Amino acid sequence: VSISLHVYQPSSVFAWLVLQNSMVLSAAIFITLFGLIIYLHFVKVDQESLLVIGSLGIQVTSSYASGRESTTFIEMGQVKDVVINEAIHMQKVIYYLCILLQDPGDPQGVSEVVPLFQSSKPRLDCLIEVYRSCQEILEQRKTAPQSSGIK
């Protein structure tokens, strides 16, 4: 039976430690970059837009920092109203625009509340401008079928 005893030089131990640390550092950098790409692609909203067409519906588009876009369309027949809602968040009152969806079973009821501009969080004065524009279009939609039925 032979027993071998390896004697390591301090320089080889130092090289081994540097190599191990650089592998750990490389892995940490890779994981961080991968997480950043995922964040930019799926989470970080760069721009939000709202397009209201009285005869068709409401289109909500979110553009992400990666360039990806997410679009949701709500048919006008589902829209009961557009409102400004308020909530308390972190000891502060915040305002946000919401679309109230009509309950198909109960015409007076609301089946769902769809919040808008959740990432950009515009100020109240901006929300009021958007709200008024939406209300104008919704009002035109309500009066349009009545005027066409009179003809």
From TrEMBL:
Biological process per Gene Ontology, one example term: GPI anchor biosynthetic process
Write down the superkingdom of origin: Eukaryota
Q: Which InterPro entries match?
A: PIG-H, PIGH-H_dom
- Tell me where in this chain the Phosphatidylinositol N-acetylglucosaminyltransferase subunit H conserved domain is found: 49-118
The regions listed as transmembrane in this protein's record are 14-40
- Pfam families per the record? PIG-H
- Keywords, A to Z? Membrane, Transmembrane, Transmembrane helix
Say if the entry is tagged with keyword Nucleotide-binding.
Answer: no
Its annotated pathway reads:
Glycolipid biosynthesis; glycosylphosphatidylinositol-anchor biosynthesis
Q: Which GO terms describe its cellular component?
A: glycosylphosphatidylinositol-N-acetylglucosaminyltransferase (GPI-GnT) complex
Q: Which family does it belong to?
A: Belongs to the PIGH family.
In Swiss-Prot or TrEMBL terms, this protein is called: Phosphatidylinositol glycan anchor biosynthesis class H
